[in-house]
Amino acid sequence: MNKIRAAIVEDELPAARLLESMVLELRPQWDVVVLPGSIEEAAAWLAVNPHPDIMFLDIQLADGISFHLIEQAHPQSMIVFTTAYDEYAVRAFTVNSVDYLLKPVRKERLAEAIRKFERYSAAGCIAGLGSIFDAGEFLNALSSGASRQYRTRFLVASGSRFSTLQVADIAYFRSEDKITYAVTKQGRSHIVDMTLSKLEEQLDPKIFFRVNRQFILSAASVCNIEPYFGGKWSVRVTPPCNRMIQVSREKIAALKMWLDF
Prior knowledge:
By secondary structure, this protein is α/β, with parallel strands linked by helices. It has helices at residues 13-26, 39-48, 67-73, 107-122, 135-143, 196-202, 249-259, and strands at residues 5-9, 31-35, 54-58, 60-61, 64-65, 78-83, 99-102, 153-158, 161-166, 170-176, 179-184, 189-192, 208-210, 215-218, 222-227, 233-237, 245-247. Helix 2 (39-48) packs parallel to helix 3. The chain is elongated.
């Protein structure tokens, strides 16, 4: 088995060394290198060295935004962005990358990104961003300020194959035994590789509403709501769910306002 090669591109050396130590703590068998923290120097290194399997790439480098590095060097690496930008400004990053990590990087989030990379790698999804990257989309997301980019699709696995699932085709999300499922309007379930809390940040709140710890519903999926025991309410959805969907007394007013918007 070939050793995984990882590269860290970060313009602040202490931050780079800290991330390096965290990666090696989680994956001591990996070969990790810290690249120069500028677009020019990192591009020069990538021009004469084999591209790593995974690259932890800071968005703001010493001489500009790292998206320009991708345009210049076309790295054949799976990329995890690291950034200190506000979370809403980086929602679009997961469309064309393995994941993104907000600074200061937490070990549990780093471990999650590494596991995702390993799943993609095991399934043969190794192509880098060089041929599909659209810098304009990302720069617009950064410069738009208050305007938020909401997720439009997911990459879902079926055995060793991957396919795209459009958000518009999803009726609701449910969480069970720490696994998140997207249920389509046709009643098919797909595992989605993120928590409901993370989904809640990436979905358009005009279309999706989190009714409790286990469910996020689309407005189109709600058939009716009715009073239940102890001041709670129940929600019936389509396609039908084999679990009762309950809404607390505190949240029902917000749900009603959302459905009536």
